[in-house]
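Researcher: We plan to redesign the surface later, but first we want a full-length starting point. Tokens attached.
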């Protein structure tokens, strides 16, 4: 089984989880990057990112150095922005063949409220079986992330 972890990360939390999951599963990594960079300040990120989610903006992604079509299974990682998954991940999921390969999803959020994001993204992922909600390292309960990752990896099999 050839597995690929596809993720977006602005401030490193999703990336850290992606790398741990990749190591435990022996999977490759593909980081999604938008052509247009996000602003540096958190306040501006909230304005720009929140607006993009609200208007369902689909950004242009930088070309990939890995071909997702050569993998059997995709594990997808997204931060939660404005209660939903990020625009870069929605851009990736425009490729329906790639979306059909996604069996597992991990969300990173500041507060752990992911239901709205899960409901929205589930519609795009016909073969989704495993999900996990992880917390930003600023949250005191983020100490449970590693145990949740281990369970998530076990459920992927
Ligand atoms: C634009 C923006 C919007 C966000 N909206 C939410 C939100 O609605 N709910 C939440 O729990 N966290 C929210 N967060 C916090 C992120 O989900 C959290 O910090 C996550 O760990 C970031 O992942 P990253 O470090 O991989 O970028 C938001 C962060 C940004 C930058």
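Model: Full-length starting sequence:
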């Amino acid at each position: 089984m050839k597995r690929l972890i596809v993720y977006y990360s602005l401030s490193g939390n999703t990336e850290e989880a992606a790398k741990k999951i990749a190591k435990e599963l022996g999977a490759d990594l593909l980081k999604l990057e938008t052509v247009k960079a996000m602003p540096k300040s958190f306040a501006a990120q909230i304005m720009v990112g929140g607006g993009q989610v609200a208007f369902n903006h689909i950004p242009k992604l930088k070309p990939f150095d890995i071909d997702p079509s050569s993998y059997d299974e995709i594990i997808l990682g997204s931060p939660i922005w404005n209660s939903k998954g990020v625009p870069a991940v929605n851009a990736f999921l425009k490729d329906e063949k790639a979306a059909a390969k996604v069996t597992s999803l991990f969300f990173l959020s500041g507060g752990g409220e992911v239901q709205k994001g899960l409901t929205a993204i589930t519609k795009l992922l016909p073969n989704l079986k495993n999900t996990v909600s992880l917390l930003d390292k600023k949250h005191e309960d983020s100490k449970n992330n590693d145990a949740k990752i281990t369970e998530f990896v076990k459920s992927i099999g």
